[in-house]
């Protein structure tokens, strides 16, 4: 049984799929009850950008710790596991938004550029912000809190686009990344979602191509463009990522994680894990277990 809490986007006041949250209100004085401990590992099913405006925060994301100073931010992709710094000696804003919001309100050309930011397989997650971001975030809060604009979504999407495009422009490898069209992005996102949903039952790339109604060759081409790796390698990398997440954030035994990752025998799982990582699951856990505390 999985022990990592799943957090979904659910805000009745913001059904558009976008919200700006003050960190002090979220973590110190929550305006609404939380169904999870934000300081313990939890998996989010939406995208997030964490901005630090004052102080220093040590944020935990998958197996890494990021020290964020004032004027820095962290991009968190859908399905990643993270935990907030419990010291609360910092202030800032958390922007959260769904993929539905992105596809509905961001221009295709913008979407094709900024999608790379959430590809944590090949890009950094930590960025420096810029002086003009402060008034942009103030505008986001103001528009959201005012509640007098009939349809604020296009305006909020425009402000979000400006900030994400700035990050993309300063990503070291961005000049080498081809511009994806909206259809390719949707196909890759569907592939990623299918892998997340079905990796326990099937690890064959052809199976996922058939579910998407495209050829294996087409899936491979899109996957290579987006992640610089084959569809098969992406599936393997995701399985290892999930295994590491469970090893790192749960008290589950190796045997339990074996079955949770879709393997019939612990021996097969351990051989697979060692082949992919050059170390045993037990050794990985001993080196990384302390990174993210249990809920």
UniProtKB/TrEMBL annotation:
Pfam families cross-referenced by the UniProt entry: AraC_binding, HTH_18
Q: Which residues cross the membrane?
A: none
Which keywords does this chain's UniProt record carry? DNA-binding, Transcription, Transcription regulation
Coiled coil stretches, renumbered: none
Q: Which residues belong to any copy of the HTH araC/xylS-type domain? A: 189-287
Provide the GO MF annotations for this entry: DNA-binding transcription factor activity; sequence-specific DNA binding
The cross-references to PANTHER family, in alphabetical order and at most eight, read: ARAC-FAMILY TRANSCRIPTIONAL REGULATOR, TRANSCRIPTIONAL REGULATORY PROTEIN
Protein name (record)? AraC-like DNA-binding protein
Origin organism is: Dyadobacter jejuensis
